[in-house]
Amino acid sequence: MPQTHPAPITAAPAPPTELTLEERLTLMNAVMTARLDEAAVAYEVNTAHIDTEPVDLADVITGPLITGPLTTGPAPLPELYPTPVAALLQRAHHRLLTGGWCSGALVDENGARCMLGAIRAEARGDSGLEASAAAVLLDAIRRRFGDNVDSVPSFNDAHSTGRVPLRMLDQAAHLADACGL
Fold it and tell me: What is the DSSP string of 126-139?
């Protein structure tokens, strides 16, 4: 008669232990990261054929901007920059804010000025200072818009409003101050 072997005794599997809060958060973080990565890839694939330009937040988030002359009289200009070129660019910016911006001429029939016209007026006959300010302004424009900008007047005339030219004068004043000019 064959001998029967008793069935091996195995231990019952241990009941699953509950995950701690940290372990659950780590697990959910890994799951969500994988989902977000998958969604990012899907978005890139689905929108790769759409030709878009990045949005400059300075073009979207704006405050009140006056491009014509003020009727209540100009506000006094605070002196922010101790260096001569930066101060000139700041004064030119303020002149455009208070006196108005134009394109196609240094000064229009209403007294509004273009970027170079404002610099020239605020330089008060100092051609060296005027040239330095125009050079810094062109450098600031090229840093932002690339080397395809030929000159300050061509940049000024390429715009239908003074919003971008005024912003560039302000950025040029910051650049001149940072360079100690």
Answer: -HHHHHHHHHHHHH
CB 149 within 8 A of CB 155: yes
**164 found inside a domain:** yes
Q: Residues 48-61: pLDDT tens digits?
A: 888 777 767 666 66
Residues 174 and 136 in one domain: yes
The pLDDT, as a whole number, for residue 75 is 57
Residue ranges making up the domain that contains 26: 19-52
- DSSP string over 100-166: -B-SSSSB-TTS-B-HHHHHHHHHTT-HHHHHHHHHHHHHHHHHHH-TT---HHHHHHT-SSSHHHH
Q: For residues 12 and 10, what is the distance between their CA atoms, to the nearest angstrom?
A: 6
- The residues of the chain scoring below 70 in pLDDT are 1-8, 55, 57-79
Domain membership of residue 11 (yes or no) is no
Q: Are residues 129 and 145 in the same domain?
A: yes
pLDDT at res. 148: 87
